[in-house]
Amino acid sequence: MMSWFFGKTPSSSSQIPATTPLQQQRIKQIKSLSNHNQNVTEIKRDKIYKVTFLNSNSKTFALNIHLPPEFPNEKPYITLSPKSFHPWVDSTTDEIRGCMALNSFYMHSDLGKVVQQIIKEMKKTSPVIKKVESPTSSLPYNKSPETNLTPPIFAMPKRIPQDTGDPDLDKLLGDLGEKSNSELEQICNDPDILIDQIESMESVKKLQTDRIKCIEENEAIAKSSLDLEPVIDDLKGDLKETFETYNELFYSCQDKIQKQNELSQFYETGNILTNLRISVMQSEEESENIAEDFLKGNLKLDDFLNNFIEKRKETHLRRVKEERIKCLVPY
Q: Which residue intervals are annotated with compositional bias (Polar residues) in the record (predicted)?
C-alpha cells in the first residue's frame, strides 16, 4: 500500500540466491547423465539416480548413482543391483571399482559418458547374479544356539566366464568353478593339491623349462666370461703399453713440428731475399773500400786486382741469386 513511499518491494524471485559454480556443474553433470543414457530415474532430487539396462542375456540390472555433497569435485558412488559377480564390482559393497574413468573422476569429467562406459562393459561381460542358498530347515533364521542354523550365504556360481588367453589356465579355473564348497575348502586346507594342478599345466611346464634353459645359458656365459678374463687382462696390458708409446710419439712429433715451423720461418723466401740484399750491399761496400784504398796508394796493383775482382764476383753472384729469388716471391 505504501510502496509509492518506500519504493518497489523486491519480488519473490529476486530473493532466491544465485546458483554457485559448483551447483551449475552439478546440474550440468545430471543433464549429461540423462542425455547419454536411457531409463534414468530420479530417486532423490540432485542426490540419487537409477539407470536400468538389459545385459546380453536380457536380464535387467540397475546402476544406483549417489552424488555426494561436493559432487562433481568428489566422484560419485555407483553400485550395481541386483548383487552380482563382475570384475568391476566389489563383491562386498557392490560398488563399481574397476572403471578407470570413474576412479579418476574430477570436475571436468562427463558423468553421462562414465555411466555409459560402465553399461557397455556390463553388456560385454555380463554380471553373474549371486544366488542365495535356502536354509535346509523350514524354520526361520535364528541366531539362538538351540536352532543351530547358519545364516544364508551367497553361493559362488558354478561357472564364471574366464578368458585369460591361456587354455590351460581357463580349464583350471573352469574346474575350480565346478567344484563344490567342500571340495574348495579341502583345496584351501591342502594347497598342495592346487599346486600340483598348476605345475601339471603345459604352460607352467614350458615356463619351468625356459627358466632352466635361461639359467644354463647364463652359467655358460658366466663361465665363458671367466675364461676370457686372462685374455682381457693381457689385452689391457698391451693397450696400456700402446698408449704410453703413443704418448711418447705424440710429444716427439710435437717437438719436431715446432722445429719445422722455426726452420720454415728461418728459411722463408722473404727472409732469404732480405739477407741476400743485405749481403749484396755489404759486398759492394767492401769492393768500394778496396778501390779507395788502391787510389790512396795503400794497396799494390796485384793485391788490388785480386781482391777487387774477387769481391765484385761475389757481389754479382749474390745479385743474380737475388734476382732469381725475386721471381719466386709474390708481389
A: 9-21
